[in-house]
Amino acid sequence: MHETKSDEALVSSPWSGGTRPFSVNSKKLGMWLFIVSDTLTFSALLLAYSYVRLANPDWPRPFEIYPAIAKSTTMTIILLASSLTMVLGVAAARRNDRVKTVRWLLFTAVGGILFVVLHTTEWINLIHEGYTPWSTPQGVPLFGAAFFGITGLHMLHVTIGVIYLAVMAFGYQKQNFDADDVEVTGLYWHFVDLVWMFVFPMIYLMSVNLGG
Amino acid sequence: MSTHGNGSDSHAAGSTRLFAFVWTWLVAITGFEVFLAYLRLRPELMLGLLVVLSLVKAALIVSYFMHLKYEKLSLALLLVPSTLFCICMIVIFFMPDGLRAMQLRGH
After folding, report:
1. Half-sphere exposure of residue A187, counting CA atoms within 13 Å on the CB side?
2. Could you tell me the domains of chain A?
3. Structural domain boundaries enclosing B91
4. How many domains is chain B partitioned into structurally?
5. Reported pTM
6. How far from each other are the two terminal CA atoms of chain B, in whole angstroms?
7. Is the Cβ of A61 closer than 8 Å to some Cβ of chain B?
8. Quick check: B103 contacting A, CB < 8 Å?
9. Residue A46: is it exposed, middle or buried by C-beta count within 10 angstroms (0-12/13-18/19+)?
10. Which of A54, A55, A205 sits opposite B33 (nearest CB)?
11. What are the residues whose beta carbons fall under 8 Å from the beta carbon of A141, sequence distance 6 or more?
């Protein structure tokens, strides 16, 4: 395989990449393609949810401002904060600052763990109130299916993300991974955050119980 | 292992200050969304507003946190239009019927 003529010629037009049309490494391109497919999975789920939510005037509204909305808003801010620490981790990796990179990656993982713990307590509260994936006290099982299905799939992503971050932090410390790998981890983590930016308003804020 | 440094995938992509600024906006929009929940809006209006605000947040995350703004334009052109097209197709297939079902139920 011969090396390209000049880097300048490669980047002069969006379509002039030659052997590297997108000018990214294969790991990053692979993660982006995974993100696109996962986006469509969540889009389909959230659109199906939107359909049943709008079509059903008797949709349950179990989320009171306190504790459910207060807790889920806190979870949102924790997840957003973990995205910020992830960005700082990627920036540190670009500077080859291994100590700071590992520290930011671990902070990010702690944010993810906090999110999962808070979300689990939220699930337990709802289950105690009689909400399960197949039934609700109001007799609208679709609510349970949509709520536990969508938030459960998202929580699975967060859990996998926490494991991914921990593996990356220790692997990067041992120099098994490089800055590009940290950046790819960041893409996944930001995507998990992005999905929650839709799940939180569409699931929680569409079912707020204001009383009265 | 991929190459490091210049000419690879590294970009002078944003400062800590810029990221903090974007983050502040994300939190502010989230706060506004929670505020909307107090207004007892009609479900279809509320859902529409929330989706638009969430799309703004998604654009901020993808552009700045996921660095797509700093990648070669061809990557963004590969990823974004195809995804939006597929999502639009799902919306076109399902949402008119969802709204019709809502009207049939007299809501």
Report:
1. 20
2. 25-209 (1.20.120.80)
3. 72-107
4. 2
5. 0.90
6. 58
7. no
8. no
9. buried
10. A205
11. A134, A135
Q: A51 in contact with B at a CB cutoff of 8 Å? A: yes
A23-27, A180-184, A198-202, B28-32: the lowest-pLDDT one: A23-27
Cross-chain residue pair B94–A208, CB shorter than 8 Å:
no
> Which range among A11-20, A75-84, A156-165, B39-48 shows the weakest confidence by mean pLDDT?
A11-20
Q: Does B5 touch chain A (CB under 8 A)?
A: no
CB contact under 8 A, B61 and A201: no
User: Is residue B57 located within the same domain as residue B102?
Assistant: no
Q: Give the type of residue at B34.
A: V
pLDDT in tens, A101-128: 999 999 999 999 999 999 999 999 999 9
> CA B8 to CA B1: how far, in whole Å?
12
Name the residue with tokens 């671990």.
A106
Put simply, the answer to whether B30 touches A73 (Cβ < 8 Å) is: yes
Residues 125-184 of A with CB under 8 A from B: 178-180, 183
Going residue by residue through chain B (107 aa), what tens digit of pLDDT does each one get? 333 433 344 444 678 999 999 999 999 999 999 999 999 899 989 999 999 999 999 999 999 999 999 999 999 999 999 999 999 999 988 778 777 777 776 54
Question: Are B18 and B65 within one domain?
Answer: yes
Higher pLDDT, A166 or A51: A166
Say if A88 is an interface residue toward chain B (CB within 8 Å).
yes
Tokens at A99, concatenated = 């100590």
Do B106 and B76 share a structural domain? Answer: yes
| DSSP letters spanning A121-132 | HHHHHHHHTT-B
